[in-house]
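Consider the following assembly input.
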Amino acid sequence: MEILEYSEGIILKDVKDFELKHIFDCGQCFRWNDDRDGSYTGVASGRAVRFIKDGSDVYIKGGKIHDKDFWIHYLDLNRDYGKIKDELSKDETLKEAIKHGEGIRILNQEPFETLISFIISANNRIPMIKRAVENISRNFGEKIIFEGREYYSFPDPERLSYATVEKLEECGCGFRAPYIVETTREILEGRADLEHIKSLDTDNAHRELIKLKGIGPKVADCILLFSMGKHDAFPVDVWVKRVMQHFYLAPDVSLKKIRDFGREKFGKNAGFAQQYLFYYARDLKGKEGLKN
DNA sequence: AAACAGGAACCAC
DNA sequence: GTGGTTCCTGTT
């Protein structure tokens, strides 16, 4: 793969294992929207761009060449997903699941944005989460003009510290509003240090994260996987719970047991397995009739 | 229009 | 530590 400049941005030439829909519509991120033509527009770390796929080339319209290392990291382009898929395909269920999410990649997102977004994800659905995250960005982030339209960066802890519980409720955060205020304060005032947590191993980082208000085991696993490079994390949401119970376990095993089983079974690739399974579960809905 | 979907907190035990 | 209930809001 190489990266070139073009008139409106940059091009990633000859990218493998890369499908926009699988990457941006698989529940790992909330700020990218399908423009109804298969391209996706959104904001990452203050950069508003549009992704357009053409064959094996990916256009990042609005992308700057001096940000090329940022995009390589964000899109996890240095990882060999073919190899991961080969390893996971030894398991028959995963072999099937991978077919449904061929081009998934796990993004490397900002820890703070990911943490707040997944606090909002508790007992919530993707369109609602997206709306709340968008509202927070519009109210507390910085304006970016792209293609003649307004976009907003996700606020850093300092900017989000101006948010009150009332304002966050208006943004659609519901009962999670006080958790966001409290956790933002913990981070801003240095009692929680996301960079330090990121430097710990998966188990210790998990222990630290669940000390924070609004973060339970599942949300902690999402933060670890989607923003801290912990690919051995295995977040168990309702969808993953359903596939796991259907294909591997009894219908009544606890979330913790499913988590332990997944981490044990898929090891260093547990996070990737989780993504394929999540996508698979959502495709299976209605067809095979997953229980619960 | 009542039922349902979705994880964490919180309180019992 | 496990189990039951509550939180909020849109959709069916």
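Residues 2-78 of chain A form a domain with the TATA-Binding Protein fold (CATH 3.30.310.260). Ask yourself how this observation constrains the way the partners meet.
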